[in-house]
């Protein structure tokens, strides 16, 4: 029986649908929760949860731009 390499697994995972990739991540996280991670493993798991989606070009951090409540006061009344 031949050994499956890490590179082969990565190529196969990339062919999965996004839903199946998420299911695989959940499965792997469940396995990892059963034991204590070393620093490199913890970092890899953390980085796997990061979404790589760009922020929209016209994003505004201002509350009034999101909710339209220009009379919003930050001080309690």
Draw up the topology in text:
Elements: H1 6-14, H2 18-33, H3 39-48, H4 63-67
Percent range of helical residues: 40-55%
Largest sheet: none
Terminal CA distance reads: 73 Å
Mean pLDDT across every amino acid position:
82
CA-atom Rg in angstroms: 21 Å
Number of strands: 0
Beta-strand content: under 5%
**Structural class computed from helices and strand pairing:** mainly alpha
Stretches with pLDDT under 50, minimum 5 residues:
none
In DSSP terms, counting alpha (H) and pi (I) runs of 4 or more, how many helices? Answer: 4
Question: Can you tell me the overall shape?
Answer: elongated
What is the succession of H and E elements? HHHH
State the main characteristics.
mainly alpha, single chain, 4 helices, 77 residues
Describe the protein's architecture and organization:
This protein has 77 residues and is mainly alpha-helical. The protein has a domain at 3-7 and 10-49. The protein contains four helices and no strands. The protein is elongated. The model has no long low-confidence stretch (mean pLDDT 82).
In short:
This protein is mainly alpha-helical.
């Amino acid at each position: 029986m031949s050994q499956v390499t890490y590179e082969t697994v990565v190529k196969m995972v990339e062919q999965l649908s996004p839903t199946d990739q998420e299911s695989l991540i959940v499965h792997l996280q469940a396995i990892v929760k059963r034991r204590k991670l070393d620093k490199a493993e913890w970092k890899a798991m953390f980085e796997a949860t990061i979404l790589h989606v760009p922020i929209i070009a016209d994003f505004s951090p201002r509350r009034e731009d999101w909710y339209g409540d220009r009379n919003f006061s930050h001080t309690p009344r």
